[in-house]
TrEMBL record:
The keyword tRNA processing does not apply. This is Ribosome biogenesis protein WDR12 homolog. Residues 11-71 form the NLE domain. Its main location: nucleus. Keywords: Nucleus, Repeat, Ribosome biogenesis, rRNA processing, WD repeat. The lineage of its organism: Eukaryota, Viridiplantae, Chlorophyta, Pyramimonadophyceae, Pyramimonadales. CDD domains: WD40 (cd00200). One of its GO terms (cellular component) is nucleolus. It is found in: Nucleus, Nucleolus; Nucleus, Nucleoplasm. WD repeats lie at residues 188-229, 256-296, 340-382. Residues 227-246 are annotated as: Disordered. Required for maturation of ribosomal RNAs and formation of the large ribosomal subunit.
Amino acid sequence: MSNEDAQVLSRFVTRMPEEYRVTDTPIAVPSRITRYGLSEVVNHLLALEKPRPFDFLVDGELIRGSLEKFMLSKNVSAESVVTLEYIPAVAPPTHVSAGESKDWLSAVDGSHPNFILTGACDGCARIWNTQGDCVVDFPVQPEALTSVSWVPGTSTQKHGVVTAGKDSTAKLWEFDSDQNSCKLLASFTGHTDSIEAIAVAGDGELMGTASWDSTVRLWKLNVDDSETVPTEKKQRTTGGASDANVTTTSSAEAILEGHTGCVSALSWHSAEEIFSASWDRSVRKWDANKATAVQVFSVPKAIHCMSVGAQGALVALGGAERSVRLWDPRLSASTTTTTLTSHTAWVSAVEWCPSNSYHLVSASFDNSVKLWDIRSQVPLHTLAAHADKVLCVDWHAGNFIASGGADCKLSIHKLQH
């Protein structure tokens, strides 16, 4: 294998459409060939009018060095016929726009198809379009916001928004995209310390809030006026709409207790199951109906961020270390499945791609955003998105990455498909 003239018999296969398929007859290629050379081989066999880049998988793992190096690491015999599955390579995301905020951007939610929601340390929430234009900003509280979220299932004109922050209160708003205005509908009180994270269930019925008081509280978002107290003092949004019929409730549907430190992250798996992560170095999976923890997983360092993948298959975690950890709650052993190490400082945010279960983005205090394919422990791309530490990141409209941080910028990158 160390001979420069050594060759490896390779069979090229793909799940792409018929026009991208080549012969499955084994072909001898140099053992020191890299994925770029392999891509040239496939393009030559396809005789495409316009060449396209490919990546290559062996037994479900991406090749990131030479074929020889990969085979040595997996103890694959040089006499073997290696099956190489080729897939479209992900081109480097391009920077398309940047929005200017008045303070550090601490939270972002890009799940709405047309708008990006952010929260900032000046206590204001802002809604942006994909071009980086702020269409509305509205003051939420005097202290910093820590988390924001769209409410799924609202109308095409009026959209639900929830916010939370250092004042220990969560708030439900209605954003009118025709009028570019927001009005306050309800406030949720009960936590005794700062709220660090909020998450809304996929059906839009329940909201979870996580706090420095070590608890998670679950709230109904279809607020029943008979269970609430009208708010006496009305505010006015920058959009100009008055907050009529604002209600305040302190009656949580459930209080989830068990963490011993700040609960820093929340993510719903389904309407019945929610995950929480904490500075106490644990992740808990809860039965929301019974308000009981059904699974607990521990890591070596405090957890700052979390994202639960499709069907709850993998949980991505980041925090007071330079790695992203992946945990599979379906396994009986509570051990890390994979550790992705590339950042050089704290990992501040992680988010699974909603359209590709292999893709994950992470943000860090090292000023970077990284795009991962979890079939490799080397990031696909590193985005120099910010001039200061990155505090939040999310996907938007399938192929955009929105991030914010201490440079007061909303940075938007686009993936090319």
